[in-house]
Amino acid sequence: MDIKVDTNTVVVFDLDDTLYNELDFLKSAYRSIAKFLDLDNWKPLYSKMFSLYRCKINVFKTLAESHNIELSVLVDLYRNHQPEIELFEGVLDIFEAIQSKGGNIAIITDGRSKTQRAKLKSLGILNDLDFIVISEEIGTEKPDLANFKAIEQALSGVQYYYIADNLKKDFIAPNTLGWKSVALIDNGKNIHFESHKFSNVECAPNDYILDFKDIKIL
């Protein structure tokens, strides 16, 4: 799809499963926890953790019992580790193209401030962003209009785009506000994968892309 960008354009992105796969954050956290629990022999433990996760067995409850550790400690380790994650191919090219046309780039994401900002730092894009909206910091979660109006208040523009992945909550507010909404189709690894349940007009995006190579900045 083509996106015409000028100084009056604001292109806003979701974070998890839009700029990178959230599953990679989970795997990174599991590796960090496995090393914390058994540094000298962490790989078998990590393998077990990921297997438990894939089998929908409570990983932290299992570890708490087997390693005599509080659940709260495991949750803190999960949320507060420095993640090893990578951007999807083509994201930086899109950012550079938007910037070259004088457009603004922003993020709207749900989650805890420390965790989400650690992800942005790990991905190396903090300096590329003109504004960041994180649900914990603003006090509301998508699809609340407040999260999107915060962008409009911070970055004045004529045309706003929101590129995200979760039909359940991502596109209701931008559609209401007259933004252009774009869904990145699940690559088979998304945490949320029930888009077929939310194909009504209210939830549906204006357009779909398979990956960032589908976007052409004009």
TrEMBL record:
Pfam family, one: HAD_2
Presence of the UniProt keyword Mitochondrion in the record: no
GO molecular function, one term: metal ion binding
UniProt keywords, alphabetically: Hydrolase, Magnesium, Metal-binding
GO BP, sorted A to Z: small molecule metabolic process
Keyword Protein biosynthesis: no
Gene3D superfamilies reported in the protein's UniProt record: 1.10.150.520, HAD superfamily/HAD-like (3.40.50.1000)
Needed co-factor(s): Mg(2+)
Name by which UniProt lists this protein: Putative hydrolase of the HAD superfamily
Species annotation: Winogradskyella sediminis
